[in-house]
Structure formats: structure tokens, C-alpha cells
Design goal:
alpha+beta; Heat Shock Protein 90; three-stranded antiparallel β-sheet; 7% strand; elongated; disordered N terminus
Length: 715
Amino acid sequence: MIFNCCKYDFLKLCLFITVCIYVSNQPVLAQTKTIDSLKKILPFLKGTSRIDCLNELGSEFSDRYWSKSKYQQTDTALMYTLQAETESQQLHYLGGIGKVLLNRSLIEEEHDKLIAAEDYVRKALPILQKENMQSDYHRGCVFLGWILHNRGFFEQSIQIYKQELPYYQALKDSENVAKLYRVIARAYDMQGNSGTAFTYFQKDFAIQKKPEDAWGKRSSASLKALVYLAAGDTANAVFYYKQAPLIAIAYSLQKKYDSALMNTRKFIMQLQSSDADSLYRKAVLMRSYSSLIEIFFSLKKFDSVIIYGRQLISFFKKGDKISDLMPVLRTVASSYHLKNENDNALFYANQLLAYAQSIGARPFVKDAYQLLWHIYQEENKINVANDYQLKYLLLNDSLEKDKYISQSAAWKAINDININEANYKNMLKINEERSKAKIEYIGKEKKTQLYVFITAITLIGLFIIMIVRNNGLKRKKDQLQLMMTEANMALEKQKREQEVTQLQQQKTELELQALRAQMNPHFIFNCLNSINRFIINNEAVKAADYLTKFAKLIRIVLEQSGKSFVPLEDELKCLQLYMDLEALRFEIPFQYKINCNGTDISSVMVPTLLMQPFVENAIWHGLQTNCSNGKINIDMHLDDKILHCKICDNGIGIKKLNPINQVNKKSLGIKLTQQRLQLISNNEEEIKIEMQALKDESGENAGTCVDIKIPVVYS
């Protein structure tokens, strides 16, 4: 005979395991604000306050059921807890040590190391009680009950849970009261006391879950599914499992085992791809294998059941997690039996029976009897088989009675659920209608008050507007008068400034005319000296040629004498005539070159006869002793409104001038030119005359260079 697991028992256990997996790994409204706040203040704390903060961080990262954050990261929890332990020992802070031990217990339990977890919490409880740390003490008591529950000591765990109920009821802590009702119900259910279990399920359902109690809402939904399943209402059970949401169980109920397998494997792959919190991840992975082997069993993939099941048996035995170990032993034994490997089946069935009898888990004792009956029957050990058959039938009858009671209790629970939900909906409806009526009444009152208020505000507003308007008109009148006064003053100031500007311009023009009047006679005197020299030396031809060019030059000078600026083109013609006249004085005339570098000489206007004094200085003081190969280069380029002019000669240079020349090296024309530039330009940086001595390759003087910056205008 093929052994068939009781569908109801399988789903109860599968539910328990899957709920653990789901809550352990889903980001269930992770309120990390508490963690962030603790991290922020930690660097500023010292002594016991710092230890308390470290312990709180350890608790927030490890206690996903009781903490505010509902967050899980056991490696981080262990880091903070170890820091708190070190500092507590240094300060001999007993309260800190007690909380450290509680946190270590929480972390070990999450790693499925239940013996170590129980050892830590039993050490913590006396310290927490002595230090009057009531909240942590009672949390530790509940946690001890949970550890005993998982180790299979259901009676002890129920006793502890019931002892802790009054404390949380006195605090009106409905969230934790509901948690206790749920774990009490699960412990009774594991014992096979379904009727009593449903009594506590109903108490949980009667408590309205707060919006922030996401774990409570999901857990209640899964328990409602279990109630409907016990009553034989699979459709509603599937509905509530999906609300939990426990999709793999819902698929299993619908016999969609391939979908259940795919959903579970997807979760396992996500878990395996993570690299965070390795110890906790391993524990969760083992729990997920528990669901996986049940699905494999339904698909009759017995080899897969055995491969994963043997890993689970080793893991759960090591952690002494009997409540999770028993369903695995049952499934592995059943798989070996269905493969006709009765020796192995017998080995695991006997282990199941021993564990189940030791903790009083009657459903698993019944399953073990059934397995052993069929195994011994196939082995032709009829007496032993009959003995186990009798034990099975007696226990099964007792459980069937409980099942009948539990079905009745389930229907009563369903009826209570429906009544509670209907009452809750009616209460919401009544509250909504009351709120609506109250809002309408308040709305009418507020409407009347609003009319009165608007009328009063309107009258006050009109009065204020009149006052503001009168004040505004008065201010406007004063402002207009002030503006008129300021405008008159500004006009008078502008007239005075214009008069001053006109007088200044007239003064500047008269000064320029006076300078030109000084410069022109000076130039004419120099020219007449040259003509006189030719006449004395009986050089009539040169004197005549010189006189002709001189006449042309005088005509140009006279034409330009009344002008402040002339085109650069006319200025250069005048300069060429002058240099031609001066060249005639030399036995070997000097050469000159003018390079304009693309400057538009017809549109650029420069002051009259500005460059002539510097050319004159180059000829008379630079080239007078250089009897042959005399050269003058004039190079100019335009930079916006400044004409850069460089006049270079290859004469004797500055340092070889005789003492008399050094004293009088600046002619009257150059001095006058500097004064003219200062009058033309207001910006001293634009006026610049620099003289530079030129050197040959041997370092000897090779001439002089004058660099002039000339302000220009455009025609």
C-alpha cells in the first residue's frame, strides 16, 4: 500500500515554513527611519548611553517580529552587538550585558542554532529581571517560548506564552497580544489539539490589525486560509493564501504543482544569488528546501526529495529544530517507501516516531505508525505490522474525532469571521454616515459663519482701501513734488556741466592751436637753415630743388594748420616730403621705408605733424655722423583706436651722443608733441612714448627705436 500524507497536516506545516521564509526575506514596510536615527546619534554618545544605542541597533537588525524597523540583517546585528558586549564589559554595565545576551539569542535563532539561542536567552533573563528592564525581560520570555516551540517542547512554550499574555494585555498592546494568540494556536495545532487551536485563531481574528502591522495582517490571512481548509472550503482557502501572499501553497491546493515548483525555485535562485548575511541566508535556504521537497513529493520526484531531504535532516538535527525536522523525516521515509527501499524507509520512519513521541506531536506519531505498518506488512512481518496497524487505527480515531471537532470549530470560526467582518463593515458604514452628517452640519455652520466673516471682511477691506487710497494719493503728490524739484535741480546741474564741458573743450582747442603755432615756426626755421646752407655752399641746383619741395610742404602745413586731425594718408605725404627735404642735405642721401601693415590710411584720422618731430630727431641726432647707408624704417599697425607707430634708425644710438646732445636730446618738437598727446587723450595709459637703443651682434650700438601710441578717430 502506498502511503499518502494527510493533506491537512502537510499544508499546515508547509504554511508555517513558507510564512517564515516569506517574512524573513521580503522588504515588509522596512521602517529604516529608526535605524537611521540611531546611527546618526551614535557618534555623539558615550558610556552607557552609547552601549544602549549599540544594543538597540543590534535588536533592530535582528528582531524582525518585535522591532520597530521589521528589518533583518544578522551580520550587521552581530557587529553592533559585539561592540556593545566589549564596551559593557569594560564599564561593568550589567544592563548592557543582559541586552547583549538577548540579542545574541535572537541572532542564533535566526541562524537556526536553537540550543545556542536557548543558552543565551536563559542567561539574559535573570540579568534583565534584576535590572528591572521589563520590556526586554518579557520579550526574552516570549522568545524562550518560541525557541522551545521550535525544539518541539510545545507544552512548555504554551505555558510561557500564557504567562506573558497579561503583561501585554495590561499595556493594551494589541499587536503583540495577537502575536501570542497566533503562536499559542500553532503550538496546540502541532500537538493535534485543533479545537483549542481554533479558539486562539478566533481571538487573533477578533483583533483589528493596525496599518503598520503588516506581519499581523499576512499571518491572519494565512490562518483564515487554514480555517477554511479545515472546513473543506478550498476556494476560500486559496483566496486567503493569495492575500497572505503565499502563492506556492495556493498553487499546491489547486494541484498546480509545476507552478508551485517554479515559484519556489525562483525564490531559491534569488536567495542563492545574494551575497549578504551568509549565515542567515543559509538558514532561510534550508527552510525553503522544506517547501521544495513537499512539492517534489507531490510530483512523485522521489530522488529529488531524498537529495534535499537528507541535507535538511542533518541541518535541523544540528540546530535541534524538531518542529521542522519531523515533516522532513516523514516525507523522506515516504519517498524511500514508494521507491521500495524499505530499509531506508524504516530507518527514517523510526526516527520520526521517536521524535514525535518525545514531544507529543500526535499527528506525526500517527503518520509514523502508518508508515511502519505498511513497511512491515511488505516485509511480511505480520505481527509487527498488525501491532502498528492497531496503534495507527486507535490514534487515527482519536484524531478524526478531533478533526470533526476542529471542522465544527472551523465553521464556527468562519461564521465568527463573517460576523466580525460584517460588523466591521457596518461599523465603518455607520462611522462614515456619522462623519458625513457631521461634516454636513459643520459645513452649514461654517457656511453661515463664512457669510458673516466675508461681510465683515468686505466692510473692513473697503475702509482700509479708502484709508490706503488717501494715503497713497498724498504720498503720490509728495513724490511728484519731490520729483519735480529733483528734475529742476538735475536740469540746472546738466546745464552747468554742459557749460563746463564747452569751456573745457574751448580751452583744449586753444591750447592745441597754440602748440601748433609753436611747432610750425620751429619746423620752418629748420627748413630755412637747410636752404641757407646750400646757398652759402654755392649749391644752386640743390637749393632750387629743396626750395620747390619746401614750398609744397609749406602749402600742406598751412592747409592743415587749422585742423586738429587729418587723414593718415595726408600726414604720411607731408612726412615723405619732409624726409625728402632732409635727405638732400646729405652727400649720400639716407633711405627710408614706411610700412602701414594693411591700415586703412584714408579713413584713420591722426593729429597733424605728430610723427615729424621724432623723424627729425632720428635724422639730426642719429644719422648726422653716419655719412653712408643711413636708413629710417617707419612701421605702424592699428589696434582699435590706438595707432602703434615705431620709428627706427641705424644711427649712432642713444649712448654715443655727445654730452651736449644728451642734454638737449629732446627737441622742442618732441616736447610739444608730448603736450599735444596729453591734451588729446584723457587716459594716460593710451599715451606712451618709449625710446630704445638697438644693438648689433657684437653688442655695439646700432641705432635707436621710438615707439609711439597715437590716439586716432575714424572719418
